[in-house]
Amino acid sequence: MYNENMKEGFCKDYLRSRIIQKTSLYGLFRKIESYEERLNKDASEFTKEEALAMYKSLKSRSVYTLMNNNTILKAYCAWLKYYNKLNVEIAYENINIEDLKLCVDKNAHKVLSREEITEIEEQLLNVTDMAIIECLFQGIAGPSMRDITELNESMLDKSNSCLVFPDGRVLYISSRLCDLLDEAFREETYICYGDTLRVKQLNGVGKLFKDRDNVHAVDSDDKRFRAVYRKIQVIRNYVGIKELTMKGIAASGMVYSLRKYLDETGLDLKEYLQTESGQLLMERYGYHSEHRIDNVIHRFKNLI
Asked: Which of 188, 225, 246, 251 has its CA 20 to 30 A from that of 110?
């Protein structure tokens, strides 16, 4: 981080009094570091015009994300001014929502990138929510979202980075998802999103969906699906990104995987989908029909 000692001190103080993921706070300072280096000064010294130019360079889809960023940077400047007796003019105090709306990227792609998914996850207040987003991105869902709502710690094999389901299926996952699930299974409280801070106690440690989600008391696939749907809806409203739907997250993960495998193999899309790896990838993301290769090509050819 640029001016690392100052920012480290601020982060430690800020995290003591705010409900925010540490990764979100540090992630913001990492993102703006290149802009600070280009201007050869700390973000606290930016003029309003420089700050807005920086926000545009972030290519954010959501004005709410930019508002959160501005709140953090405003607090950082105030911290420098109060605790370090620095004469800092806080340009961020003069930035309003109308200014930030002009910084939102209007030309964003239809699918979310790996970096955008990570940034969204790091804005969330609960590790459980981060894990659910990551599950959808990595193609963990199953019929009516059953693979997510029934996921528990006995299915996680961290040593082999995979999930082992009761029906014998084995799905390999990233180390990031392994760590998120491991922490989410042990999460005992849930911070509710909204204007008023509410923290609820969870029952059912060891599961991804705890008892408060009202999915284990019923055996209805429709209710399980709706439980995940509602959770994603709340998260989408919180971060203000319209592409953040269950289908949108999965499609983004599919595009990310296809790009990666096509780069690794040198094959074109149709050739790759005809391989064993391609077949497994389609099944993982819910493409099971006999016309699935044509369906995937039609859906994704212009996105990779």
From this structure: 225
